[in-house]
């Protein structure tokens, strides 16, 4: 998931999959951050030229015919190889061009079979998954889908060294066809969220006859899958999807999708307003979004708004003085006025976040609101600072680092500084620093930054994907902090025996209610120990012409293109 996807890539010319994976682990968060930074429709300051400054003649004409639907976007397609695609927009395309073993019931986060016929049969030790597969499915090239093809696709995903390879490689010991239409997957350790992981857009089967197994052997410019659409053409400025007439499932409600890749947010905005597009999706800047929302009734277009699963947070380096004192971290948590941030910085195009688990997941518990107030608790913060030994004669030094390429994070940091120093005059000195995102992620695991503002976009919809990457540690102690593991890679260096125990339990637990209780305790630990401070959760927007139906952002952040139609 990249900022300006065509311009940033990992150097992966090392030999062997494990070398590629090792390099990728270090840059994983950078890939996610850069992608989400590019989605400036949810950001608070203009990431591009606003409509008020856009030349009136800068529109790009989109051509549509019949019942084909034209969609405009500024996002680009780096690759459509499912073993290497790790940007948001290619993920949307793959989700519609291919199928996966499991998917979600539209409008919900309820897991349902897709190319599988039932949910998996899990062994008593939680290590073996037997998955019966759908018969009679063919790939776009006419070759049959079966267990052998699915096993090949999973193996290729793990072994070819693509950017998302770790998602399966960290979990799967083996994947093999144990029958023509039976797949058996053995995992390395019990993992209750494993079926959810199999919904990732890249885990779509491809035919062995059209794809190769081997390090770096990718096909970025083509795609052959089993989905409701076939790839008709792919160029730097357009993507065309034709209906797959041989699709095994429900046929699309339209005759095809024509995607125009527009050169700028200003051109995208103008092209939609002048009627050149049926649908516009990412990336418009906040001023343009506000203009389209306010002008919807007069302009005759629809506004589709949805919460996202993107969480934004402040990392607290628990090994860095004075943040090694828990009362100091708690005091900082009590200083945060999230409602002020949402109102002033985001113009309402975000919502306050009080946990690292997004608000739209059932496990969400607003622990920071409960512990530190909806808009902060300044009296509590002053008490905690006093107990930690700080005063006007010995003020708390607070450094906030952020990416120098993010206007939004700069505004958030400035707003936090003004708010904190106004409420705590002479008691807290806030210093804002910025550096390139690549430098941040190159130094995050070294403990360079006392605090740094980041975001997180999970790869699959499960509370585990918002807890384990933050709260777990493989090696360390409370005294020394995390020496090896996720929290060390994430820059907090947090270590808790109880957190590690809870994560191990929730990953092995098959009972939904028991897992929910475990996640609630993990969130309680988060609010008590404060290795991270959640800040805000992004919103997402689509705009569609009047007469376009079925344009919905799913709770999983996917868009089902086959549901869109012209009335």
Walk me through the structure.
With 567 residues, this protein is of the alpha+beta class. Among the domains are: 79-227, Periplasmic binding protein-like II (D-Maltodextrin-Binding Protein, domain 2, 3-Layer(aba) Sandwich); 310-538, Roll (Dipeptide-binding Protein, domain 3), CATH 3.10.105. Helix content is 31%, strand content 21%. The protein has helices at 17-38, 88-97, 147-159, 166-169, 194-197, 265-273, 286-294, 296-299, 326-334, 338-344, 367-372, 378-387, 407-423, 437-443, 464-471, 486-489, 497-508, 512-529; strands at 69-73, 102-104, 111-113, 121-122, 128-132, 172-179, 182-187, 229-235, 238-243, 256-261, 279-280, 301-316, 350-352, 396-403, 428-435, 451-457, 475-477, 481-484, 532-545, 548-549, 565-566. The strands form six sheets. Strands 1, 8, 9, 10, 11, 12, 13, 16 and 19 form a nine-stranded mixed sheet that branches. A hairpin with a 2-residue loop joins β6 and β7 (182-187). The chain is globular, with a radius of gyration of 24 Å. The two termini are 34 Å apart. Residues 1-64 have low confidence and may be disordered.
CATH level-four homologous superfamily name of the domain at 310-538: Dipeptide-binding Protein, Domain 3
Q: How many helices?
A: 18
Which fold does the CATH topology of the domain at 310-538 refer to? Dipeptide-binding Protein, domain 3
- Estimated helix fraction: 25-40%
Low-pLDDT regions? 1-64
Question: How many strand segments?
Answer: 21
